[in-house]
Amino acid sequence: MRQERKLIMLPGPTNVPDRVMLAMMKPMINHRGPEFAAMLGSIAEGLKYVFETKDEVYVLTSSGTGAVECAISNIIDTGDKVIVPTFGYFSERLKETVARHGGKPIEVPVEWGEAPTAELIEKAIKQEKKVKLIAVVNNETSTGVTVRDLPKIAEVAKRNDALLMADSISILGGDYLPVDKWGVDLCVTGSQKCLACPPGLAMVFASKRAWEVIDKKATKPPYYFDLSSIRDHWLRKETPCTPAISLYYALDESLKMIREEGLEKRFQRSAQCAKAFYDGFEAIGLKPYPAENVRSNTVVTVKLPSGVDVSKVREIMKERYNVIITGGLGKLRDLILRIGCMGIISEAEVLTTINALENTLADLNHPVKIGSGVEAARKVFR
Amino acid sequence: MRQERKLIMLPGPTNVPDRVMLAMMKPMINHRGPEFAAMLGSIAEGLKYVFETKDEVYVLTSSGTGAVECAISNIIDTGDKVIVPTFGYFSERLKETVARHGGKPIEVPVEWGEAPTAELIEKAIKQEKKVKLIAVVNNETSTGVTVRDLPKIAEVAKRNDALLMADSISILGGDYLPVDKWGVDLCVTGSQKCLACPPGLAMVFASKRAWEVIDKKATKPPYYFDLSSIRDHWLRKETPCTPAISLYYALDESLKMIREEGLEKRFQRSAQCAKAFYDGFEAIGLKPYPAENVRSNTVVTVKLPSGVDVSKVREIMKERYNVIITGGLGKLRDLILRIGCMGIISEAEVLTTINALENTLADLNHPVKIGSGVEAARKVFR
Question: Three-state SS for A42?
Fold first, then answer.
């Protein structure tokens, strides 16, 4: 069976709706003209809706990692202490970014597959003096773990006069994250994850508390990531540098689709699909990688039985069954599968993916009762 | 008369060919998979052709300004001396970027509308000791001036044991720039100018001499712009962060179109169109802004007669005649018009633009012999 398009079940980039793809065909325009300004206004409203904030969320032409660097480099001066819980590949990268901008990362190591708790962070912040920032990967794309304590960690930050930054790249728009209500000070995401856009744009939210720190910062951030300049331009509906106009069209369309569906419905849809994945895997006899209480609704990970080769599973799923998933990162490279549960995710994509995985394991002569995973997943939707 | 699409005669973004636009509709793929790797290989070959180099040219998901910052921040350590001739808005910005990364910019001021000469740069470098880099805006998009001495400035750099960086954002792919032959060490450009892609990608070339400096650099550049990491990933046909996949499709297609046409023919086409613009303007009685010997073939600028309002001219050209051009930057804001002569530029676009300008000036009751500009321009193509 050949499909025209393979199903992209990666933890980003994800499947992009046709409406969003087609939006990129709109004609080129002057990024200093009224048409672009009108679109920026529409995007600004859409982002406020998705981040659930009254403040501004800024768009960068970069990957999500660029937005993380933007947030860090606009807050941190040389020697500033930053608490970074590390529990996967992207939190390690966050720690490195803090160090690269002269910050002093105070690592709070957590076992991979687990999430940092507010208690753990509070203990760490009590031991240190004058911590400027708590920087948390909200959803570890490498392990499929969500930090469910984020609102409590925000309280810890406030109590200890620190800011909280959330790297929400693989979760924002797919699970609850009301930044104003929870008190998140800096929050970044990327276009190609739960917003279901093509990759290439990233978003940065900064709270009033964050701006007080940014405005007082001694050294200047990289020119390209200078949030003060980005804000000044944003308020007159411009960007300091030429924006990726076609991707802005896509983002505007995707934000419209999210508003049409409604956040609550979108979160429930993703949560239901994630549950179907986890139930399906367990029915096949596979164990989800993360601890049960911290399993992500947007990035699903599962351990492979020993002796089953990750790259072979991926290859067969892609070539025979037209479903693209990925393996682990870093030390988990050959141990787990990672699957995106984002954007347009629905029963169809979940069943297709579980079916492909069942067939693949059978093709590899792994004992599996074909259909058991699909059946367990199917039940979740009834 | 309403056209479906307005003619985008901006000095970037420029009109994008349908083939390139449609390439963005290709399906989302894994940026760590073989399909993306194959595309990166094709892009790499295309970029070597356009930059006329045997070495690698790297692609960033950012604007051209991001690529300038990438080049500067991978070369400059605190206190390093950098000669920056300033002769417009973007060379001022380049100077600021040098300073922001701890470099000591040695400004060589040149009158706006003129270009720095090799003699001037050599005089400046002789006065200073241990200059690490000469950083030149190759084509000042704000004034429409091309630095025709670039190959001679490369010789000055070599003689004085400095590197040469060219910000070639608005010229590469539109006029001669063989980086190997001329000895340019770092050269950056953007997707939305002479390559006729949508905005959002930028390219960085580094010579072997440049890599010797980059590899010895004491401090690390921003994570997102770390050229060593970008190179390591590029050599295995990957990018460190998620790339703007749809824009890579567009870039690949645009590079194929450039190879089909051939660089020489493309440069001649742009030069001929630029001459038609300049001749057309003079026939109308308007004076090109730059000195005659440094006029750009890719960004055309012209002074408006006193009493004629730049924003009114732009508005009428856009609303009545469907042609979008722009005004000056910085101190030239209300004095000149700037017009892109890039990408798909041909006789049709030139005549349409000049015709629109003639009509607009007549609409504004400026004495102009309607048809004289079009006639002068038309002759250039016969």
Answer: helix
